Amino acid sequence: MHKHRFSSSEELNHVTMAYVYVYYNHAYSRHIPPH
Fold it and tell me: What would the pLDDT profile of 1-35 be if each residue is shown by its tens digit?
């Protein structure tokens, strides 16, 4: 049971990192006007 919980936490962390990466990438894109 503990192992399954760890796996779930790891997956959630991975998804969160991807979401944050996309979010910051979008914000960075908005700050800098297209050439």
Answer: 556 666 788 888 889 999 989 988 887 777 666 55
What is the spatial distance between Cα 17 and Cα 5, in angstroms, rounded to a whole number? 18
Amino acid symbol at 31:
H
Amino acid in the structure at residue 30 = R
Determine the residue type at 18.
A
Instruction: Provide the 10 A C-beta neighbour count for residue 20.
Output: 10
Side chain identity at residue 5, one-letter code: R
Q: In terms of Cα–Cα distance, which of 9, 2, 20, 18 is closest to 28?
A: 20
